[in-house]
Design a protein that fits this description.
- There is one protein chain.
- The chain is an alpha+beta fold and about 100 residues long.
- The protein has two domains: about 50 residues, no CATH class; about 50 residues.
- It has four helices and two strands.
- It is elongated and about 60 Å long.
Length: about 100
């Protein structure tokens, strides 16, 4: 299983000197979600963490994650899914800049 575009939300140190890493993913398809739930308490064999995240993410990817955090913190009740919120916000942004062209 590969969790593409997951972001590290939080890292916590534990009493036994291990660490706990919390990830946030975009919406996942049902198959991936099932695989993820089935993998609870299984050992993770490999985790790739980019050395410089800001240089590897495109501006569009960074905007998507900012919008995701906004939806998560303020608009989750109004929009059932992130995709609905994302599409609405992108249309609003596009209309804003299209109005500046005319």
């Amino acid at each position: 299983m590969n969790l593409k575009n997951a972001i590290i939300d939080k890292i916590t140190t534990m009493k036994d000197r291990s660490i706990k890493i919390t990830l946030i993913t975009p919406e996942l398809d049902p198959k991936t979600m099932a695989e993820l739930f089935m993998s609870v308490n299984n050992q993770v064999l490999n985790v790739d963490i980019p050395e410089d995240i800001s240089e590897k993410k495109s501006k569009a990817q960074r905007l998507r994650w900012v919008l995701y955090r906004l939806w998560e913190n303020k608009y989750k009740d109004k929009y059932n899914t992130f995709e609905l919120f994302y599409n609405s916000e992108m249309e609003r942004i596009l209309e804003h800049y299209k109005d500046k062209i005319e």
